[in-house]
């Protein structure tokens, strides 16, 4: 009997963890892991946190040591691009690397962990030198170099990446201006009450927040960015411009192969596409979540870390449903935060806070019809499991008891 070949497209955290999980589940066939970067798989949170700040060593960002891939018989092909998937023949076409022309690799099962790409800023001057996006380790290292030489940097976008990179700039002694189109940073994610906490945090640390402002041009001299111009004509000078205005899932391969796409690659709870031999995981997967009862696409580290384990089991024919509650974290200045759940704008009707917003020691809960959709603990620890339990239960909670720090979180559901 011929040995099975499992191909993973995307040498990312999700791709590497899928290879690890396949070996851990006893798969003894061939694993081919293909990535378009020259670096072996690495984790992305350090790129806007510890590694960007110079607090984390480079070798610590990688998912596995270099020798792991050979030891585990994972055929790691870096600097290669998968150009097409032929589902009828069950082959992927690969270009790049040392070989001339195209290479075809057959598969029995195919996992797409193609991730996402930074959304580009569609304004004049966007192609100038000195305009940076943060997605790859190379991006991070270039921005680190900027922080060592620049006196002031403009950040376009007040989301998580924009705020984390601005915090890193301030900690490096660089003046930072954040330009955000909404009236508050993180407004769509957190709502006005909690978003104000982050606005105040950054102002206290010297960040110049320009809110309700639209960048219409990146200005420059001699081919290099020297700042931005706003819709009202205001010019903000900077030695560099860092853009963080969201990411777009890399769906081209799947779409051209005739797989269903829509805000990512659409998969079921077992992470399988409409083709029983093709799966997707990580940032690119728009997966049905059995607890939340709908398809969601999660752009966070914990998803890329854990979802591939379910994908590997599914590829091996085991019945599986990925139902972990979405989770992410951030560290900015002296604020540490964990967030669990999924509360999109317009989906919640109440925000309840227990603790002290002014001291930035609190837990916030987003509710709909008295049920907890999401929770965020700020500078309060060892509660994330209880928050996830509230979300998973789907039970209605008493608002006053939820806001009372003296009521244990695990006593809020029925019978508590």
Explained architecture:
This protein has 416 residues and is an alpha/beta fold. The protein folds into 3 domains: 5-117 and 248-315, FAD/NAD(P)-binding domain, CATH 3.50.50.60; 120-245, FAD/NAD(P)-binding domain; 334-411, FAD/NAD-linked reductase, C-terminal dimerisation domain (Enolase-like, domain 1). Helix content is 24%, strand content 31%. It has helices spanning 13-24, 45-48, 66-71, 137-149, 160-171, 187-190, 192-204, 252-256, 301-315, 384-393, 399-403, and strands at residues 5-9, 30-34, 74-77, 80-86, 91-96, 103-106, 109-112, 116-118, 131-133, 152-156, 175-180, 208-211, 215-221, 224-230, 235-237, 240-243, 247-249, 265-267, 278-280, 285-289, 294-296, 327-332, 335-341, 350-356, 361-368, 371-378. A 5-stranded parallel β-sheet has the order 3-2-1-7-19. Strands 9-16-10-11-12 form a 5-stranded parallel β-sheet, with helices on one face. The protein has a 5-stranded antiparallel β-sheet with strand order 22-23-26-25-24, with helices on both faces. β25 (361-368) and β26 form a beta hairpin. α1 runs parallel beside α9. It is globular, with a radius of gyration of 22 Å. 41% of the residues are buried. The model has no long low-confidence stretch (mean pLDDT 95).
């Amino acid at each position: 009997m011929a040995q099975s070949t499992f191909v993973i497209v995307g040498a990312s955290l999700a791709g590497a963890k899928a290879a690890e999980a396949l070996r851990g589940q006893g798969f003894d066939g061939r694993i081919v892991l293909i990535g378009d970067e020259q670096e072996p798989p690495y984790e992305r949170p350090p790129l806007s946190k510890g590694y960007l700040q110079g607090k984390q060593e480079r070798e610590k960002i990688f998912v596995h040591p270099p020798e792991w891939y050979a030891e585990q018989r994972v055929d790691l092909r870096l600097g290669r691009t998968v150009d097409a998937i032929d589902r009828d023949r069950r082959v992927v076409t690969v270009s790049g690397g040392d070989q001339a022309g195209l290479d075809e690799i057959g598969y029995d099962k195919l996992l797409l962990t193609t991730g996402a790409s930074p959304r580009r800023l569609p304004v004049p001057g966007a192609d100038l030198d000195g305009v940076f996006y943060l997605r790859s380790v190379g991006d991070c290292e270039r921005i680190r170099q900027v922080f060592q030489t620049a006196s002031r940097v403009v950040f376009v976008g007040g989301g998580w990446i924009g705020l984390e990179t601005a915090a890193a700039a301030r900690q490096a002694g660089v003046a930072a201006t954040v330009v955000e189109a909404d009236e508050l940073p993180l407004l769509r994610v957190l709502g006005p009450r909690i978003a104000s906490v982050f606005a105040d945090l950054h102002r206290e640390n010297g960040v110049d927040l320009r809110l309700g402002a639209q960048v219409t041009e990146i200005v420059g001299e001699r081919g290099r960015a020297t700042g931005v111009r706003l819709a009202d004509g205001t010019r903000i000078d900077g030695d560099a411009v860092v853009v963080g205005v969201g990411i777009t899932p890399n769906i081209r391969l799947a779409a051209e192969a005739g797989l269903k796409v829509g805000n990512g690659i659409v998969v079921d709870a077992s992470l399988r596409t409409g083709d029983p031999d093709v799966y997707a995981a990580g940032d690119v997967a728009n997966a049905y979540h059995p607890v939340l009862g709908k398809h969601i696409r999660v752009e966070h580290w914990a998803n890329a870390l854990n979802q591939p384990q379910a994908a590997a089991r599914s590829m091996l024919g085991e019945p599986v449903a990925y139902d972990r509650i979405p989770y992410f974290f951030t560290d900015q200045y002296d604020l540490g935060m964990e967030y669990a759940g999924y509360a999109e704008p317009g989906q919640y009707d109440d925000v309840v806070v227990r603790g002290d917003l002014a001291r930035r020691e609190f837990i916030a809960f987003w509710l709909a019809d008295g049920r907890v959709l999401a929770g965020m603990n700020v500078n309060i620890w060892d509660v994330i499991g209880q928050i996830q339990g509230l979300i998973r239960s789907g039970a209605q909670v008493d608002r006053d008891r939820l806001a009372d720090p003296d009521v244990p979180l695990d006593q809020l559901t029925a019978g508590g």
